[in-house]
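Suppose you are handed a protein chain with no further information: no name, no annotation, nothing but its sequence. What can you learn? This example shows the usual starting point.
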Amino acid sequence: MTSKIQMIVVFHHMFPQKRLF
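A reasonable first move is to predict its three-dimensional structure. Written in structure tokens, the prediction is:
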């Protein structure tokens, strides 16, 4: 599912300091 990948990318860009993954 590309949606999940896109969400992860968006979250990473929104919170680059917080590494949840």
